[in-house]
Amino acid sequence: MDAFVELSAELTGFSAEELSSTGLVEQYRVLAHDASDAEIIALWYTGVWRGVIPSARAYAEGLAWKAVGVAAPGTEGPGFGSWERRPRSGV
């Protein structure tokens, strides 16, 4: 495991495998080469780098969405016929 992934795993609380599965390690490594720990955490959780979303994938793979167990808004449709099912109670 390389130093950037190891540091990112320590800072975010997500495993190296989880971070690698986003497909964003190389892109984030380039962006964050001189970043503070806080900037690296913000990048992984929000998918935003210094006020800019570097890619649609960065938004969709933001760890904030994974932490609460939902897909990023606008990234996954509810599926065909979902309109005929009642929403889960408590939602």
DSSP summary, beta strand count: 0
Shape: elongated
Query: In terms of structural class, how would the helical and strand content be classed?
Result: mainly alpha
The H-and-E topology, N to C, reads as HHHHHH
Please describe what this structure looks like.
- With 91 residues, the chain is mainly α.
- It has one domain.
- Helix content is 47%, strand content 0%.
- It has 6 helices and no strands.
- It is elongated, with a radius of gyration of 15 Å.
- The chain starts with a helix and ends in a 23-residue tail after the last helix.
- The mean pLDDT is 91.
How do the helices and strands line up, and which of them pair or pack?
Elements: H1 3-12, H2 16-20, H3 25-31, H4 37-46, H5 56-60, H6 63-68
Search tags:
6 helices, single chain, 47% helix, elongated, mainly alpha, 91 residues
Question: Nutshell version of this structure?
Answer:
The chain is mostly helical. The protein has helices spanning 3-12, 16-20, 25-31, 37-46, 56-60, 63-68.
